[in-house]
Amino acid sequence: MSDSKPKINEARYTSQLVPVDDGSGDVWLTIPDEVLSEMGCGVGDAIELEVEEGRLFIRKAGSGA
Question: What pLDDT digit, counting tens, does each position of 26-64 carry?
Fold first, then answer.
């Protein structure tokens, strides 16, 4: 991750990929409640995903981060 990106905190979290069970092969990515709270997100909010050097970064859409 580049140094120019703000960091909410340095904590690491473990999550699970849960099958959607509709035959598509898609999965749900569960995000721990404490992460959503730290991000200021809730059910129904849009998020942005970025993959950089094999890492997944998640931020609230439109946060300007």
Answer: 999 888 888 889 889 988 999 999 999 988 888 899 866
**0.85 surpassed by pTM:** no
44: left (phi over 0), alpha (psi -120 to 50) or beta: left
> In CATH, which of 1.10.10, 2.10.260, 2.40.160, 2.60.120 is domain 17-60?
2.10.260
CB-CB neighbours of 39 under 10 Å:
17
Do 41 and 34 form a contact (C-beta atoms < 8 A)? no
Bridge partners (DSSP) of residue 37 are none
Task: Look at the chain and count its residues.
Answer: 65
| Residue boundaries of the structural domains of the chain | 17-60
Give CA–CA dist 36/27, Å, rounded.
Answer: 19
